[in-house]
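In these records, each integer encodes one residue's backbone shape. Here is one protein:

___
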Amino acid sequence: MTGSNAVGRVSVPQFGGVPVHKRLQDAAGALERAVMVRLVERLPVYGTLSAEHLGGDIAKQVTRGIRSFAAVLSTGEMPGQAEAAAIRESSARRADEGVPLEAVVGAYHLGAEECATQVFSTAEPGDLGDVLLVQRQLLAYLRLVSCEVAAGYVQERQTALSDEQVALQSLLSRLLEGGSPQAAADRAGIRLPPCYLVLSIAVGPHPDELVPGMNHAVAARRKLRRLRNELQRQTRGVPLSVLSGEGGLVLIPYETPAADFGRVDRDRVSRLVQQLGRMCGAELVAAAAAAAPEGVAEAARLAGEVREVAEASGRGPGLYLLDDVLLEYQLSRPSPARDGLAALLDPLDARPELLVTLRAFLASGLDRRRAAARLQVHPNTVDYRLRKAAEFTGLDAARGADALTLRAALAAHDAVRQGRPDSG
């Protein structure tokens, strides 16, 4: 025999002849104190909050939740828009305070457990029907509350992250423009490091981007996400970046002053580039330049030029500094000598496969088999093309002196073809 009575069409559950919502309302004060104790015991983050905070807003929300569920038991209806909005607002405040989402959701579940313990202990054998009704309403209430908590929390974090991202992008723009970035750093809440390591990165394709029928856009986004995540994991401080699936710029805060950047630092950054490549599953060609915050704009320009020269000269994946490409870099600067060197390769304009083979042969350390593997042709094909290139240019790539001239000619040829403007 159930203890429910009917108010209109609403079935109001009763335990021991007393409406359950009335039991909750009468015990609200004691329930609030019990829930607060459990929050601190079971969810350690709440124990780190001040007594004023716990006894103020948190306790107020606990009481509100108890009374809100009592209203559900009384009316048979879930909370309306006003109550849902209040739950979202409270969750947003917890997000702003840095309370983890799982703790916010867990607080409502602990409160529900305490309420259930309080009222179910008063149920009598004949109240089984009402016990089941209260359980259904409690689960429905928790489902609604969990959704509203998540919605309010996520919206607040998205807003905060958007604001943070805007501030970080503003700092990045200021650094790349040159001049003092201090005001932008203050707005972003970032301490400017003694030095920024500027990386200009070219990102090769992930294997999935080369598979026919694969969603290449998704593969590229996954590659980029892994790159960013690993960059954040490997970096102390806040790295700044503008990256796409093909590459871009990264600014890494560095505690070593630019003037003291040496071999140990270079090895460390080289390992970082290798690790980034492994984690994102793609080959990276990166060039680095170190500079104080006020000099980032010039360092970014230099790193970009060094990377372009390294790629154009056939260098493989890895890290490059200016010292690694001094000859090619200098020959990429406008001069009569550069134009003369570039003209040495003009006879090959109609035979692009010869030019490609020269690049591969020089990049492979004058090893014909390695060059053949890189080009995916037979070694005899490499030999034939090198002989034809020698006939057209008068320069034999297998001879040391000619190889040096050809390397310089390739650098000059690429610079002329790119139409690089004078740098002054």
